[in-house]
Write a structure and sequence with these properties.
CATH superfamily of chain B: Aconitase, domain 4
CATH architecture of the largest domain in chain A: 2-Layer Sandwich
Number of helices of chain A: 17
CATH topology of chain B: Aconitase, domain 4
Low-confidence stretches of chain B: 1-5
Strand order of the largest sheet of chain A: 5-4-3-6-7
CATH topology of the largest domain in chain A: Aconitase, domain 3
Mean pLDDT of chain A: 97
Radius of gyration of chain B: 19 Å
Oligomer: heterodimer
CATH superfamily of the largest domain in chain A: Aconitase, domain 3
Helix content of chain A: 25-40%
Distance between the termini of chain A: 50 Å
CATH class of the largest domain in chain A: Alpha Beta
Number of domains of chain B: 1
Number of strands of chain A: 19
Number of strands of chain B: 8
CATH architecture of chain B: Alpha-Beta Barrel
Helix content of chain B: 25-40%
């Protein structure tokens, strides 16, 4: 059993009670809500005659359903309009802050909470969205919940939870040029499997993790859930503190020093005990691309789609389903696979540094003929910062569309989607069947720089070749 | 389609009925309920949309319809699955859609955690079977008329003269058996402890001394 880890310390601090059923009642420090998984929770609250216990600890934005072309109200899609109107009414009724379109603070919930300084080390963070694991980048214990649990947090600012085991994922060495946090996490999931993390929190640690920026750490923790781990985290350190200082909801003045001292005390100590540890060498990781229908079906861009013989026996049925669905030949190289649509954005890779990495590839080049390529900043703040650097113009000159912030084609609850059998190069997080809005649409997950490379060449390409050109 | 009056309520000791098998590992919640059906402010209409894209795909491309489309499985209440069922998105719409189609218990080799918790919050037990046991269970379910019974407290599945051991963690077992699977009431009962917890969290008092 783990002890002395950040997870243990934060868990202990937030324990309210042991519940009769055996679960722990855990206090939730920050509750984030959006338009998709909250309306039924508010309705449930009303049904029970309850109110919101700590409206000041819940923060709302709108992201999944917003169009990224025109965000004028009412939305063209009446269902999308109804969802946002419902969120607005619920927030107004219960005194919850909503960072809406045009506020300057709207965006993907997992982008805005960090950039506003709402997410801080040592907090428990819950949101009705599985990618809440993102916030673990700050040394928070952050996890996705369902709508009944959203109702519970609204009502009680707490949840019934079971404690997880803790696996330390230690990464030595150095990432090669052209290899990003996205490649690292795809490599981890490829190695440990999409079920490997079930029952665990992942602590990401080691020299490579310490050298990652906060935005890279967010990419890493964001996809912990794709490896089955409900939360992933990085211990808070000076990189964390430098990111937070001066943000609107971060502590300031005397409180700042107190905060840093407390945050520092939460990190897993040298005597921390983990339930499990797995080590990786970053130098061996290539730009990584998924070829199949789960995020665990990934390979280096210089590798071939694995054959059935190269696949573990119990993974073979899924591999066969993936060959059929993706229409990729086992044994054939993934590089060179033609793509139709290139998407840069999402809660995984829609931050400023992601756009900068893609722009470095796109600069002075042009999207290949017949390819639809578009860039969706993760938030209004990301959009403003990118525009200040001229990235919007750079992308447009290179043949990419520059869009308004939102979840966009990550999950296609808005007008951005694949059509028919189209195949995308996507900086998002899931390559599930039908994920991007067409029941037969296909997704290749990769880093934003790799998506840009695919857009330029019209096919899956090793971004290292373009960076060196 | 079940009416809302038959949704789980109170203590859940057992679930009886016919079974439907959905084979395969890593069946994610996008497949259970595609995202376009999440454009709603109630769960009411989700039942018919469960597995919508998988069902359409099989209707088009396969000799056999999807299990949820086969006449003999209409009215089934026990879902039999394999490994890591319900992975991916946290959407409660997935168990809501299964429940509204008629599912009242799920037996599988393993479950994704958020899905498992979402089912529990609806009073739908998810029980775990070893791989070999699961193969036996799914073989027994080849007879679509076979009557199954999930015993929650014993964590057993029976069908005719066959019976298999399942796993159900003590916490969820107790919550189901005592009717406390809906945690809201328990959470609200601890108002003082909630206050005490909030009072010791530095970030809730702007990091000033207590």
């Amino acid at each position: 059993m783990s002890s002395g880890t950040l997870y243990d310390k934060v868990w202990d601090l937030h324990q309210v009670a042991q519940l009769p059923g055996g679960a722990t009642q855990l206090f939730i420090g920050l509750h984030l809500i959006h338009e998709v998984t909250s309306p039924q929770a508010f309705a449930g609250l009303k049904d029970l005659g309850l109110t919101v216990r700590h409206p000041e600890r819940t923060v709302a934005t709108v992201d999944h359903i917003v169009p990224t072309t025109s965000q004028a109200r009412p939305f063209a899609d009446p269902l999308a309009e109804e969802m946002l109107a419902t969120l607005e009414a619920n927030c107004a009724e219960h005194g919850i802050t909503l960072h809406g379109i045009g506020s300057g603070r709207q965006g993907i919930v997992h982008v805005i909470a960090p950039e506003l300084g709402l997410t801080q080390p040592g907090m428990t963070v819950a949101c009705g969205d599985s990618h809440t694991s993102t916030h673990g980048a700050f040394g928070a214990i952050a996890f996705g919940i369902g709508t009944s649990q959203v109702r519970d947090v609204l009502a009680s600012q707490s949840l019934a939870m079971g404690k997880l085991k803790v696996r330390r994922i230690w990464v030595d060495g150095r990432l090669q040029r052209g290899v990003y946090a996205k490649d690292l996490v795809l490599h981890v999931i490829r190695s440990l499997g999409v079920k490997g993390g079930v029952g665990y929190a992942y602590e990401f640690a080691g020299p490579v993790i310490e050298a990652l920026s906060m935005e890279e750490r967010m990419t890493l923790c964001n996809m912990a859930i794709e490896g089955g781990a409900r939360c992933g985290y990085v211990n808070p350190d000076p990189v964390t503190f430098a990111y937070l200082q001066g943000r609107p909801f971060a502590p300031a003045g005397e409180a700042w020093d107190q905060a840093v001292a407390w945050w520092t005390s939460l990190a897993s100590g040298p005597d921390a005990v983990f339930d499990d540890e797995v080590r990786f060498d970053a130098a061996s990781i290539a730009p990584t691309v998924t070829w199949g229908i789960t995020p665990g079906q990934g390979i280096g861009v210089d590798e071939a789609v694995p054959t059935l013989e190269q696949t573990e026996p119990d993974e073979r049925p899924l591999a066969e389903e993936a060959y059929r669905y993706m229409d990729l030949e086992p044994g054939s190289p993934i590089a060179g696979t033609p793509v139709d649509v290139c998407f840069i954005g999402s809660c995984t890779n829609g931050r400023l540094s992601d756009l900068q990495a893609a722009a470095a590839v796109a600069r002075g080049r042009h999207v290949a003929a017949g390819i639809k390529a578009f860039v969706v900043p993760g938030s209004e703040q990301v959009a403003v910062a990118a525009q200040a650097e001229g990235l919007d113009k750079l992308f447009e000159a290179a043949g990419f569309e520059w869009r308004e912030p939102g979840c966009s084609m990550c999950l296609a609850m808005n007008p951005d989607r694949l059509e028919g059998r189209q195949i995308s190069a996507s900086s998002s997080n899931r390559n599930f069947k039908g994920r991007q809005g067409s029941a037969s649409g296909r997704t290749l997950l990769m880093s934003p720089a790799m998506v840009a490379a695919a857009a330029i060449n019209g096919r899956v390409s090793d971004v290292r070749d373009l960076l060196n050109a | 389609m079940s009416s809302s009056s038959s949704f789980p309520v109170g203590a859940i000791h057992h679930v009886s009925g016919t079974a439907v098998v959905v084979r395969g590992d890593d069946i994610d919640t996008d497949r259970i309920i595609p995202a376009r059906f999440l454009k709603c402010v109630t769960f009411d209409a989700l039942g018919p949309a469960v597995f919508a894209d998988d069902r359409a795909e099989m209707a088009e491309a396969s000799a056999e319809p999807h299990p949820f489309d086969r006449a003999e499985h209409q009215g089934a209440s026990i879902l039999l699955v394999n490994r890591n069922f319900g992975c991916g998105s946290s959407r409660e719409h997935a168990p809501q859609a299964l429940m509204r189609w008629g599912i009242r218990a799920v037996v599988g080799e393993s479950f994704a955690e958020i899905f498992y918790g979402n089912c529990l919050a609806l009073g739908i037990p998810c029980l775990v079977a070893d791989h070999d046991v699961m193969l036996q269970i799914q073989a027994a379910a080849a007879d679509p008329a076979m009557a199954f019974r999930v015993d929650v407290e014993q964590a057993r599945l029976t069908a005719g003269d066959q019976s298999w051991p399942l796993e159900l963690a003590p916490g969820p077992k107790q919550m189901l058996a005592t009717g406390q699977w809906d945690a809201t009431g328990q959470l609200l009962a601890n108002g003082e402890a909630l206050q005490a917890t909030a009072a010791r969290l530095p970030y809730l008092r702007q990091f000033s001394a207590a």
